[in-house]
Amino acid sequence: MNLDRKEIENLVAKAIIDIKTEQKGDDSKTIFGVNTSCGNASGYENYGVFKTMDEAVLAASKAQKKLLFSKMDDRQKYVDIIKETVLKRRNLEMMSLLSVEETKIGKYEHKLIKNRIAAEKTPGTEDLLTEAKTGDSGLTLIEYCPFGVIGAITPTTNPTETIICNSISMIAGGNTVVFSPHPRAKKTSQMLVKLLNKALEDAGAPANMITMVEEPSIENTNAMIENPKVRLLVATGGPGIVRKVLSSGKKAIGAGAGNPPVVVDETADIAKAAKDIVDGCSFDNNVPCIAEKEVFAVASICDSLIQNMKLNGAYEMTDPQMIEKLDALVTNEKGGPKTSFVGKSAVYILNELGIQADDNVKVIIMEVGKDHHLVTEEMMMPILPVVRVCDVDTAIELAHDAEHGNRHTAMMHSRNVEKLTKMAKLLETTIFVKNAPSYAGIGVGGEGHTTFTIAGPTGEGLTSARSFCRKRKCVMVDAFNIR
Description:
single chain, alpha/beta, Aldehyde Dehydrogenase, Chain A, domain 2, 2 domains, seven-stranded parallel sheet, six-stranded parallel sheet, 16 helices
């Protein structure tokens, strides 16, 4: 996308002013002219944003009853409206900019890519395939049918991408959705929910097919989980929120954490592997759960790999004391990543250590042992530990250990089909990318559909419309068998 620099600067300035004005308590509550405050109780003026969770769920429930009796062509029309609305240049820039400015996570140019592919590559009603069985006893149809109202929890790392992807998939399946966004992405989420609802309502769709509460919080998330009108729960986030929805007693889909490893063996194209790894690890400052988090490189090519990574924007840290200082800087008291460093750039992190780095530095790399904290913990920032190993089989075993059985995502750079197969079988990840950056696994430069809800803990894997439906069987006895 060729963007005029002045337009970008104006949009950024407007986003910052809007956020700061709202944080100071200004009653206008508008973002780029979209009113993000709640209107009256009738629902239409709210465009999906409500004062209380009960109101948000009730509105979604009323919308779903209307959607349930709509035609499949209508559902696809609503999906197309969502896609067209997101892909309008001004809207795409607006949500990408506001996401970065409000959350302080990620990179604008990569948010543009992620929001675009969420709209372009998320399947609609074509994903809902019908099964048919005929015989002497008649005809049986098995079809994907809606749950009803879905409660969806979205993360601060991918706030707009997840709302876009889930809204398309869930509405295509005949559901409506109540979102519970991360509080640090509330303005971005409100803006997008209102934008989509207004476009849908202007096209004659039921009001409030996509809703949320004005003030996201743990209390409101709990209220959504407990509301009897919510029939299915979907959590895209860390292990804590996934455990919460799984213990709710309701059907739940959990898209939890990963710690994606990369293996590079002696048969790989080392120059390409180095560039792919740096590009994948630095994508949106490493916040995608699919992004490269640690590298296991065969010793015979490890030096060459590191050198080529440095040629492609990696800053190598070799002083053991500085590596430990870095680890301490970005790690919280519980051993996880400090929120203030998640999604920050490599240059920002280095500056915090007192190291001046060129703006083209994308990733911080260092050679460490297999049990180092930066290897075993998913940090979600462009820090990439490299572990030197004796052979490819050892590399695969260590990658399996580092992935912690999340079965989320893994990468391998190799020309050895036998070893590629071994790693794919052993790790059992939902996404396995061969000889490419991690983001190829979600459709950026790779084939296949996009999703930002990758359900490893509950087994659905790459979610799409059918993931948010239940199979129903319709039987006609002694009829419609014409063979």
